Amino acid sequence: MRVLVVGAGAMGRWFADSVATADDEIAFVDADETAAAAAADALDGRALTPPVEERFDLVCVAVPLPAAASVIEEYADRADRAICDVTGSMRDPIDAMRAHAPEIERVSLHPLFAPENAPGNLAVVTDADGPIAETIRDRLTARGNELVATTPAEHDEAMETVQARAHTAVLAFALAAEDVPDTFQTPISEALFDLVEQLTDGEARVYADIQAAFEGADDVAAAARQIARADDETFTELYESLQ
Question: Which GO BP terms sit in this record (predicted)?
Answer without folding.
Answer: tyrosine biosynthetic process
